[in-house]
Amino acid sequence: MALLTLNESESAFETYFVNGNNYNGTLTQITGSRNPDDATSLQRMGMQLQFLAALYPRTTDTNNRKLRVANEISLILSILNDSGQLDKSKLTYGNVLGDPGYGMVLLGLALIKKGATYNALTTAGKRIVDVNAAYLFVALGEHLYKFCIDDVNTDTAPYKYEHSYAVPKFSLNIPALVAGALGAYSDLVNNSLVHRSAIVTYSNTVVGRYGYTKSYTDGLRTFIPMGGKGNVRKPFGSSGYNAYTGMGLALAAHGHTGTGALKNPSNGGNYLTQAKQITAFYTSVLDKIQAQEIHEPFDFAGTPSTKASIDRAKSLMIAENRGSSPSLITENSDVKDATKLLDHAQPSAYLYNLAWVGDTTFLAALDRRVVLSGEAKKLDGVSAMRACMNAKNPATVNAAAANRILSGFAGLLERGITHITEGK
Questions:
Q1: What distance in Å separates the CA atoms of residue 5 and residue 360, rounded to the nearest whole number?
Q2: According to the lineage, what is the superkingdom (predicted)?
Q3: What does the pLDDT look like over 388-397, one tens digit per residue?
């Protein structure tokens, strides 16, 4: 059964936000994780802003819903403003390239700024959007360019897994999100040639150099490595990581070759092609088994990872530490956190950030998998996406996937995907 994306988005708002008419206070952890001291709060607030900004201009005004959505936006903006997390002093290279929240927030502000949502805000709210969007846009553009010149261009001898596949000494998902946020903002709001230059540079230096994605049905597998800088997982990939990467790449296309509307796909710099390779890979995996949060390089082909299989991969990489291309893995402690993520409650649901790619075949496969795997409740007349949001107990377990699903709803609305499925 096909369900209306807008109706499901409205139902999610009414249930999971304080200003919703059916707000369930026992689920407050899902959208209430707005403590600026929480390491994940900034990215979650960014995804909530994306959802609310995409919903406002499209929702019916039943029971003053538009006003209540605007009030929720104002609440989040006030928290961001009062926390000082977006002050210029915080927008350092290390912070911006180390926390996905900055790109997520800029994308949320871009969606607010582009239309009716911005006009619904108070004068104070508009000022918060304007000031912080300007700070973020300048800083993220400068840092993305620096990343390409200083980090990518100096990575002249990257570790090559099995001596063939380059693994960067840095993570790829956060720079991709930065490029995506800049792409959306420059296309929808600013049209800045300076920042477009940074996005083009990113395309020329990064896209296609690191990461390999092929369909499982072709007998090949995916390898989009975490990278080594400041990340103990290093060459290991994950559903959540790859979802951020694909989301960022799909949006970056709009900064490379703008269309003026996110519902009109752009493939500037082959960004969209790269993003669709990620969804194509996961489509084949999801048809077989749920997507693991962590998987060993070139050995995730629809078979669940295990501690033993990850240990084997670690041993192989340690053994490869020789010659002019030394391994990023030198001892078992280098990936000490990898196996912890094998038990993540909703690894497939992490992929809903990829709704921004606009691949409906992938989304239908994902809907089926989250129902089959128990990551979503089996409820008639409720989309698989919404059924994921409080499927697990306690409610805190759902928070990570639920906020990604909110970003996914925003992607569906902005991409013009009007119907979603129950996962049957």
A1: 12
A2: Bacteria
A3: 999 998 888 8
Amino acid at 226: M
Output 311-318 pairs: Cβ under 8 A, ≥24 positions apart: 313/236, 314/338, 317/161, 317/235
Alpha helices in 213-359 (DSSP H): 239-256, 271-286, 307-319
Question: What's the pLDDT score for residue 326?
Answer: 64
Tell me the one-letter amino acid at 282: Y
Let me know: does 260 contact 187? Beta carbons within 8 Å.
yes
3-state secondary structure string across 281-322? HHHHHHCCCCCCCCECCCCCCCCCCCHHHHHHHHHHHHHCCC
The pLDDT value recorded for residue 158 is 75
What does the alpha-carbon distance between residue 347 and residue 238 come to, in Å, rounded to a whole number?
9
Q: Which whole-number Å values give the CA distances from 395 to 196, 239, 390, 407, in the listed order?
A: 41, 21, 6, 19
Instruction: Give Cβ neighbours of residue 64 (< 8 Å, ≥ 6 apart).
Output: none
Model confidence at 338, pLDDT cuts 50, 70, 90, reads confident
29's tokens: 């952890």
- 392 sits in the region (left: phi over 0; alpha: psi -120 to 50; else beta) called beta
List, for residues 21-30, the tens digit of each pLDDT value: 998 887 777 8
Q: What is the pLDDT of residues 105-159, one digit of tens each?
A: 999 999 999 989 999 999 999 999 999 999 999 999 999 999 999 988 888 777 7
Amino acid residing at 277? Q
Average pLDDT, the chain: 87
Encoded tokens for 282: 């996961």
